[in-house]
Amino acid sequence: MLFLRKLALAGGALALCLSVLPARAEVVIPDDCKTNGFAIGCQAWSFNHFTVLEAIEKTNEVGGKIIEFYPGQRLRKDQPAVTFSHHSPDAVIEQVQEQLKKYNIRAVAYGVVGPGGKTLEDRKAEWKQIFEFGKKLGLRSITSEPHAEDMDYIESLVKEYDICLGIHDHPKRDKDPNYKFWDPNYVLSLVKGRDKRMGSCADTGHWVRSGIKPVDAMKILEGRIISSHLKDLNQFGEPHGHDVPYGQGVSDVKGILDELKRQNFNGNISIEYEYHQENPMPEIEKCIEYVRNYGHTK
């Protein structure tokens, strides 16, 4: 009888332990992909004047260790009609994987992307395709600005594929009040009560263009920041403000990094440099140098 009681208690303790553990945890970006504690690299859009294969090479040249792809970039110079996206055949994906391996760059995210179609039923198949693409590349997250009615289905895919969703923000649109992603409170409302792998892709530059201080927005989204398109802009609240190297603008990059560190952020920082795009590398290199020196200088 005593043996059975002990066995029952042990079984109950084991069941309790299992019940508090998450069924799955998101893909973890390894430490060797980090610079000074941050997984920093490039959003391939920084190199949209170039090809995917060139974007990977250039990310390595500026000192980045991770890359976030976007849909529709040309694959390579000698095949100008071939683009890279979740519609790509395996033969194209394999070329990208070979280039990533060659330059020791980790693909971590993909976006901004979302399926077409007027209804959720029209969009489901493409959502599935996007997550399948993410699985093939070993991505941690998908970056999107999804329809609110798609969130239940997206949550099911997040759980099935163990891939995060980062909801992106573009600037506030005065002529389109229905566009709400610029507001961190709206993004929070979309993920509140949902799987912890669903949250924000914090585009700090677009918050600045919308007149929102990035650190304030990040505090609203605490615990829900999946990734970041980290930008430093030359003007605050100005729709046409442009990128400058980290620390030279008005975005308070040090405060942003401080806040990410305080929140134990473990996602990717994608430098999406949208200025001097014919040759953004010198300025991107300065951004990575800023992160490398973060916390080491007064």
Question: In a nutshell, what does this entry contain?
Answer:
Helices cover about 40% and strands about 15% of the residues.
Descriptive report:
There is one protein chain. This protein has ten helices and twelve strands. By secondary structure, the chain is an alpha/beta fold.
Number of helices: 10
Distance, first to last CA = 67 Å
User: How many strands, what sense, and barrel or not for the largest sheet?
Assistant: 8 strands, parallel, barrel
Strand order of the largest sheet: 1-2-5-6-7-8-9-12
Low-confidence stretches: 1-23
- Average pLDDT number: 93
List keywords for this structure.
298 residues; alpha/beta; 8-stranded parallel beta barrel; 12 strands; disordered N terminus
Blueprint (SSEs and pairs):
Layout: H1 2-20, E1 39-43, H2 52-61, E2 66-69, E3 73-76, E4 79-84, H3 90-103, E5 106-110, H4 120-137, E6 141-144, H5 151-161, E7 164-168, H6 184-191, E8 198-203, H7 204-209, H8 214-220, E9 225-229, E10 232-233, E11 243-244, H9 253-262, E12 268-271, H10 281-293
Helix pairs in contact: 2-3, 4-5, 8-9
